[in-house]
């Protein structure tokens, strides 16, 4: 922890996006201050409770986001922050300020540019609902397949960044897809990402979640899939191709079965051929796009090397 001892803690911006977190925000700010971190920025999503007032009274800088959604808030904050290090944490009191050292360490050591606090490492009973835990595991697996890198908790709300990372991620998602996008963008741009174990505690009984597990989970899955088009086109077009080819085969089997019973289904035969051909074409698109992406990656690597 030598590096942390020499760290000027004002060089670390603690960024907290909030929406109606009056139950937990005060304790969170106090905990960070007692860890020695005074540079605290709350970006608020037009809370209708006392979040902003309480945060200000307890020494945080508070700004109100211009638009809506956690994603928009994070993007706006990233534009404003000019500190060398950034730690982002949810304001709902489910993460511990004392884990900030674990989140920062690999960044200060130069081993990482973006750290993910892994909630799976140690979570309190009740911190995840069964649905949330299953959803998180599925989405982590989907991410692993799509991007070929196994990160235990891509959706964590506790992260560390260097200034370079927050200024170079190109973010567009407005809602809870922002975590996926930050992780994908970092992997895509070959930034050094590292997972660190943290503790995840249960949400306070009187604090409400803003996340709808099914609706937001589905949106996140779609984001992982959609973004794979540019990073791993074989995965994206492969899934489309498999879907189309399998539907073609299913229709084809029905056509053959009918034909054996003496019924000829011409339109369905054409449909079978079209589905299978389009499916195969998707695989070919996948291979071509894969080639383009590999060449692009190589060019970017050379450009980065030249700039270093
Ligand atoms: N500024 C801003 N913050 C938001 C918005 N929506 C949610 N947040 C904050 O983002 C953080 C994460 O939101 P949560 O509702 O805890 O979502 P989550 O942690 O993904 O979901 P849970 O697992 O249910 O806790 C919290 O600090 C929220 O207050 C928003 O629209 N604007
Ligand atoms: Mg939460």
UniProtKB/TrEMBL annotation:
Domain Glycosyltransferase 2-like, residue spans: 13-161
Pfam families: Glycos_transf_2
Keyword line: Membrane, Transferase, Transmembrane, Transmembrane helix
Gene Ontology terms, MF aspect: glycosyltransferase activity
Keyword set includes Transcription: no
Top-rank taxon, per record: Archaea
Classification via Gene3D superfamilies: Spore Coat Polysaccharide Biosynthesis Protein SpsA, Chain A
Protein name: Glycosyl transferase, family 2
Membrane-spanning intervals of the chain: 234-256, 268-295
Cited InterPro entries: GCTrfase_AglJ, Glyco_trans_2-like, Glycosyltransferase_2, Nucleotide-diphossugar_trans
């Amino acid at each position: 922890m030598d590096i942390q001892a020499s760290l000027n803690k004002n060089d670390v911006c603690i960024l907290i996006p909030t929406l109606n977190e009056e139950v937990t925000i005060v304790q969170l700010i106090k905990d960070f201050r007692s860890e020695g971190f005074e540079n605290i920025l709350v970006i608020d999503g037009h809370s209708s409770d006392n979040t902003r007032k309480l945060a200000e009274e307890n020494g945080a800088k508070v700004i109100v986001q211009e638009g809506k959604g956690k994603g928009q808030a994070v993007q706006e904050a990233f534009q404003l922050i000019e500190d060398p290090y950034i730690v982002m944490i949810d304001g709902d009191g489910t993460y511990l300020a004392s884990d900030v050292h674990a989140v920062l360490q690999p960044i200060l050591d130069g081993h990482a540019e973006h750290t993910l606090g892994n909630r799976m490492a140690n979570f309190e009973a009740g911190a995840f609902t069964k649905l949330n835990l299953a959803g998180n595991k599925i989405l982590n697996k989907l991410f692993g397949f799509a991007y070929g890198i196994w990160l235990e908790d891509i959706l964590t709300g506790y992260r560390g960044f260097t200034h370079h990372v927050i200024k170079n991620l190109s973010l567009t998602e407005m809602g809870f897809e922002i975590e996926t996008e930050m992780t994908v963008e970092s992997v895509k741009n070959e930034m050094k990402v590292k997972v660190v174990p943290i503790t995840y505690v249960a949400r306070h009984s009187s604090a409400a979640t803003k996340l709808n597990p099914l609706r937001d989970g589905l949106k996140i899955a779609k984001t992982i899939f959609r973004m794979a088009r540019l990073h791993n086109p074989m995965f994206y077009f492969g899934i489309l191709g498999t879907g189309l080819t399998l539907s073609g085969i299913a229709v084809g089997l029905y056509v053959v079965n009918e034909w054996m019973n003496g019924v000829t289904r011409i339109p369905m035969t054409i449909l079978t051929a079209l589905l299978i051909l389009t499916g195969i074409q998707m695989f070919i698109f996948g291979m071509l796009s894969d080639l383009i992406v590999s060449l692009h990656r190589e060019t970017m690597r050379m450009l980065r090397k030249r700039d270093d």
